Amino acid sequence: MEFNDLELERLKKLQRLRERGIEPYPARVTRTHTNQQVIDEFAAKEAAQDAPHFAAHPAGGEAVNAAVVGRLVLVRPMGKASFAHIEDGTSRLQIYMKKEEVGEETYEMFLKDLDLGDFVEAQGHMFRTKTGEPTLRVSQLHIISKAIQPPPEKWHGLKDVETRYRQRYADLLSNPEIREVFRKRTKIVNALRRFFDGLDFLEVETPILQPLYGGAAARPFITHHNQLDQDLYLRISFELYLKRLLVGMYERVYEIGRDFRNEGVSFKHNPEFTQLEFYAAYWDYRKVMEVTEQMIQYVAQEVNGTTVIEFDGKTIELGGTWARITMRDAIKKWAEIDYVEYPTAEELRPAIRAMGGHAPDDASWGKLIDGLVGDYVEPQLIQPTILYDYPRDISPLAKRKAGDPMHVERFEFFIAGMEMGNAFSELNDPLDQEERFVEMGRADNMEEGEAHPLDEDYLRAMRYGMPPNGGFGMGVDRLTMLLTGRSTIREVILYPHLRTSEK
After folding, report:
1. Does the CA dihedral 367-372-374-380 come out positive or negative?
2. Which of 98, 104, 210, 499 has the fewest CB atoms within 10 Å, i.e. is most exposed?
3. 473: exposed, middle or buried (Cβ count in 10 Å: 0-12, 13-18, 19+)
4. Complete domains list, the chain, with CATH
5. Helix runs in 201-284, H state only
6. Is 320 helix (H, G, I), strand (E, B) or coil?
């Protein structure tokens, strides 16, 4: 490993500490309070007592004594006394040291051998400075971790934003705002769990490595099991395994976990992402619509304290009853074409091209319609909107719409111009399902790499009898983007996938 001049200087300090008998990476640390806890306790005692008297006699019997730890983020030497700031996972705390109180050896170590980025343990009692800042007056100071590499510069001056994602640890240590995004992400997941647990759902885990992928139209990642000498797939969806559990007499199940899709990367796509799926026996897509609204509103209120959010310069109201529009009516409204009048790809493709739209030669009828949604409808759906009744040939797992051979009972919901989730009245007719699998598996009916395999075991499960049910899937990453105001998925995934760096 090569070191630059700044790092070499820190290594010299590390060696000096050890030569003086000071271990820069001790095995144990004393900590009685977090920084925020000691600040809060001090403020509470001030309020409960005579504040002027308390501040003037901080070492008295009612003093707040504490041992705290944190990273050195600011140092202000002032001769025989010094101020500094240390930061832990909760807050930043000012500390104050006098040479005569901590001893000459400790004070010399602080001035000569400690650097910004080092972790220290400080023991003492709290007081308030003349400027009013709660401060720990240090009686003992110990180094607990020496930083060899200096802290990064503030990211507002960094041009290569990918460095923030490649070195997420450096991003987090220098940006409290980014740390808050991921705290909020955890709150979102916890709120989702509380919501479904409150509806008597059972949280389960299904296989990540699967002998046959399914449940979505996506290209899978392939791996190999050496002992079994068998190719396996990283799951692209939980759906088929979760619905097997409905056959097994669980009525409401959900899972929050990772899915893997071997496809494009964009501001709203990552090959590895967190998905929520739920399935409820005896529900249909209308019931799922209601629960979807309730779920998003509940999570927003729990995490942000409001159903109003700001995203990409727009104010969005998540509360109330959301707008609902059929796919056909939405495309007629914004693309000004009625796809029902063009019931085959060969008829629809020239009609789209005639209006200046994009219509690939190899796209099926359903894919052409889906393209119209992406190009013309999706950008209009800023406020929460449910788009429902989708073409049958792009919805192989959804129940047919009664009296309408073209469409199925499926909806997606959109917020801020993004598709946020997908739901069906789930198909539970095993004969119809097998026919759909066969149809969707034809190479000429799907884009390369997206053919849905025929899952014989899933069909066997269905033949035992599957109750009518409603199902739902949503990317947790996109929901986090929405509730934290982040415009790219890389900002809400701790370790997003990036092309291997040559540096």
Report:
1. negative
2. 499
3. buried
4. 5-145 (2.40.50.140), 173-322+383-491 (3.30.930.10)
5. 239-247
6. coil
- CA 215: distance to chain centroid? 22
What pLDDT, in 10s, does the model give residues 143-196?
A: 999 999 998 865 443 446 778 888 888 888 888 899 999 999 999 999 999 999
Between the alpha carbon of residue 426 and those of residues 95, 288, 451, 467, the distances in Å are 61, 11, 19, 9
Residue 144 in tokens: 């607990």
Listed range (24-28, 42-46, 47-51, 161-165) with the worst mean pLDDT: 47-51
pLDDT value of residue 437: 85
Alpha carbons 264 and 102: distance in angstroms, whole number: 58
In whole angstroms, give the CA distance from residue 489 to residue 327.
26
Identify the pLDDT of residue 55.
54
CA angle, 235 as apex, 250 and 481 as ends, to 5°? 90
Amino acid at 468: P
Which helix (H) or strand (E) covers residue 38, if one does? Answer: helix 35-48
The residues facing 231 across adjacent strands are: 224
| Residue 219 per-residue DSSP state | P
pTM of the model: 0.90
Answer yes or no: are the C-beta atoms of 352 and 359 closer than 8 Å. Answer: yes
**b/e map of 251-269 (b: 16 or more CB within 10 Å)?**
bbbbbbbebbbeeeeeebe
User: Mean pLDDT, to the nearest integer, of 420-430?
Assistant: 96
